[in-house]
Amino acid sequence: MDSQIIEVLNVTRGVAWLPWAVSYFFLIGLSYGSFMLTLPYFVFGRAQHEKLGRLALLGALVCGLTAPVALLADLHGPGRFLNFYLHFQPQSWMSWGSFFIPIYLAGLLLYAWLALRGDFAVRGQGGTSLLARLYRLAGRGGEAPRMAIAAAALLALAGAVLVALYTGMEVMVVHARPLWNTPFLPAQFAATAFAGAIGLALLFNRFIGGRDSELEIGLNRLLVLALALVLTLGGGWLFVSLSGVSPSHSAAFSQVAGMPQWQLTAVWTALATIVPMALATWRPASSGLITGLIAVHSAWMMRWTIFIGGQSIPKTGAGLYDYHLPLGNDGLLGIVGTLGLWIALLVLMLEYLPWAGQAVAAGNEKATNALAANAIASH
Amino acid sequence: MIQSRRNFLRALPAITAGAALAPAPAIASAAGKEDGRHRWAMVVDVQKCIGCQACTVSCIMENAVPENSFRTIVSTYEVHDDKRTNTYMLPRLCNHCANPPCIPVCPVGATFQRKDGVVVVDGDRCVGCAYCVQACPYDARFINHETGKADKCTFCAHRVDAGLLPACVETCVGGARIFGDLNDPGSKVRHLVDQNKMKVLKPEMGTQPHVFYLGLDERFQGHVEGAGTLWQPSGHGG
Prior knowledge:
The structure holds two protein chains of two kinds. Chain A is mainly alpha-helical. Chain A folds into two domains: 189 residues, no CATH class; 145 residues. Helices cover 73% and strands 2% of the residues of chain A. The longest helix of chain A is centred in the first third of the chain and has 31 residues. Chain B has seven helices and nine strands, in the order αβαββαββαββααβαβ. In chain B, the strands form four sheets. A three-stranded mixed β-sheet of chain B has the order 8-1-9, with helices on one face. Chain B has a two-stranded antiparallel sheet with strand order 2-3. Chain B has a two-stranded antiparallel ribbon with strand order 4-5. The longest helix of chain B has 19 residues. Chains A and B meet through strand 1, helix 3 and helix 4 of A and strand 2, strand 3 and helix 4 of B. Strand 1 of chain A pairs antiparallel with strand 2 of chain B.
């Protein structure tokens, strides 16, 4: 029998995890991904990776400190976070997450302080200003022992792994949304987080790090590997969905496959992975700006599609729920505000944190010498 | 104007409670009890539903549900089968599942199941994280945009505890919603469940809903395959 159903009246459920959640998952992903990139220099002492380590530490800190603010905003009342600690629920991944986030951030801050302690001490040398005294206080003891840095890195690493685990599992366990209910999701979150972190490092290298072409080549090569992993995971999901091995994957696929907006998203996602791979392979020394931008964009877009796109699929009703980005706190203003906080923190860190180590001191010295030379020349 | 409307809404539960005091013999024995002797459930006889939305409106009035939000609604569909066109009505609400997926995800234990099976939210503890909203397979929960906390059908627990029927049952014109105690062998709900082949929504989810449907078309048992809704509320989706 030929049958057609038109939904005439039903409730539209608005998205309940707002763009704040997208911002949080995006930033915390970039943060733990960036943290991983700091390890070769600060923990394993590979001097050739110093610039990468320092730029990535900046990325890990600025993203890591901004992320929880977006998460708190998603609670519609920041003070409510206290209930997470008053009423622990071991069966809820989100409840565990409320403990994993402070573990990661405490580990990251301790690690960053120990990693830069020697640089703090250098920055505080000689001056009598309050700032110089604060630098001396932060740098007391000088360069930290390698073992202390490694121990702090271990704590941050444990926190990073737990954050990556809980952010993935929290979404994966939602059986009610077939699109989320896949073991591929935690791995996809992690892989796109690493690709995004590499993209962020490429952008930092271009705008803050003096455009080191060797670093650009190295990061582009790493990006190709990360994006290959992203493609493999995406291909794996597609295979499982199409082959019929898993009914829940097939259900998720059939929910969206026929819809033009999801088809466009699929093409866009594939292009946003393949194009930077091709560019990074073809022009590794000069494509960093564009490959970095696309990689960061892909990390954002993946989360936006999962959260906002996922919530626009009705669980019982027909068709799709419409979503229009609101202009206020729960929409555009929230995203722009989070970006504003991110930029403000970045500016503060660039100004006051000795993130670049001796390079900054050397840079300052160079600038001072140049000024002196100019002064002499003008006489 | 808004204030007076709010006052009106606040006063409504008292008014309706007063009006309904007499005709609620079905659960009068429940007054003030929540001791596990009862297991509240609802049977929805789909063929008796006329889609008048009286249940939708009475629920909003009884529970002061904010504008554009719904704890229950009668989903209405136009169904074309060959040359025949029919209207299909499906009342939806929280299923007060025996295995509710909204409870284990709650990070603060704010959502819980009473001994009588009613799933409720402790508004003082709820942090508005919306994890339960995601976990519910029936789209039965939402974030109340006035409180910023999870909201849902409670089977009108405040009325049931007072020995009254839920507002939607009380106002159902066609008698399509039947509410009662599954643990009571003499209750109409128990009788209907025992004597008929009941269906529940999305049985494959393993949630064991306690809203049972009589005469439910299989095409509407899960995610409905059809053209999207023609009407959507403006402002806060709910």
